């Protein structure tokens, strides 16, 4: 079957989709967006977390056909998504009107270009991505995309989270490397920066 | 496999009547796991996501009509006052991502004894509204679970909503697992005080082939509370009464040994949870009763 949906703010269609296929499979194998990771395939690990009409979900548990007509944001579109949100406020998923979005080609070729203190180049990260790098919250990186999408969504509606809020919001994302402390640091950092920016405006 | 996408409830019923083997999929948090692991290859998937009314709820005079697909997140956010037991149970479901998709209709449809919502539904008391092209009926929750992962649905029926009694007293929910998130219950316990009828209802999860009530324990406690005038005098429940109640709740279990726990552990833990939830709810009832008295005086 064919699935028409919005991915990172742009209309896309996927062809020859098997009816039992997951949204995760469609994103990775048919859209060429392997940022969302495939690990447990049972909703345990959260590494496939994407936004579906704005709501964080495990894309491995969404049947591809259920995404028909809906808007998906993956980690590849997170930087643009966060930028749109900062500029226009509210919805940036493409679910409510036209946004610039990220073309499939751009998303496929997306690479992180952190504003590293050493290189100082590039501006194409969302605040949460930058915070993960600055706090050293990435080791093997497998869980990172899911954590980024989940953490970004929490900061969207809860700009000043307590540690308990952060733990709760990220309780569906497993990391086997970091012991989570650096990840918590990263989210606290992103929240603090967001707050400071809010004050500046 | 065919993917059926009814745009309305009527279309969904027609599709289910035409293809009784069709597997309904809403949040997908059970169905997709089975498909991903090749445990199930249904001939038809019946997508219920397009039917908006399944995601809505109405708070009535005595009951809440909860649409089958209302996600657990929404229950936690919006129905904590009306359905405190179910809201607590919802909070123990898996992770935020899963709670954003899964709903009570899925728990009921799967009818696993480990479903987190069941003990709360049994304790609160509710009716399951099911429908087919032949008509609509309401199944009392006590008659709904018929066996391991079996329920009272006919092949052509779909779950539309659950009519849950609004809380008329404190409710509690307790669950045993290895961590707070992403845990299938080793066992779980729900308890609701119903001061209006001066009764107590219970629900036990993961400790019998189906979710069950501890009816003998309820009857014992109802009689003991009545006899001691506890509903009126608001005294602390006698430890011997609480212990007897806990023992009877343990006795209501019919558990198995499995990877998550042994039968004897489950029986023991259910007794502990029964005593604790009784203490918690009763303390809250006494506190409420005391403050009401205070305001009157």
TrEMBL record, chain A:
InterPro entries to which the protein is assigned, alphabetical: 2Fe-2S-bd, 2Fe-2S-bd_dom_sf, 2Fe-2S_ferredoxin-like_sf, 2Fe-2S_ferredoxin-type, 2Fe2S_fd_BS, Beta-grasp_dom_sf, Diverse_Oxidoreductases
Source superkingdom: Bacteria
Key words, A-Z: 2Fe-2S, Iron, Iron-sulfur, Metal-binding, Oxidoreductase
KW Iron (keyword) present: yes
Gene Ontology MF annotations: 2 iron, 2 sulfur cluster binding; metal ion binding; oxidoreductase activity
Gene3D superfamilies reported for this sequence: 3.10.20.30, [2Fe-2S]-binding domain
Biased composition (Polar residues): 102-120
2Fe-2S ferredoxin-type domain segment(s): 1-78
Entries under PROSITE patterns matching the protein: 2FE2S_FER_1, 2FE2S_FER_2
Region (Disordered): 102-121
Pfam family, one: Fer2_2
Protein name: (2Fe-2S)-binding protein
Organism for this UniProt entry: Streptomyces antnestii
UniProtKB/TrEMBL annotation, chain B:
GO molecular function list: FAD binding; oxidoreductase activity
Protein name (database record): Xanthine dehydrogenase family protein subunit M
Record flagged with keyword Flavoprotein: yes
Listed Pfam families: CO_deh_flav_C, FAD_binding_5
FAD-binding PCMH-type domain: residues covered: 1-169
Keywords, comma-separated and alphabetical: FAD, Flavoprotein, Oxidoreductase
Coiled coil start-end: none
Organism: Streptomyces antnestii
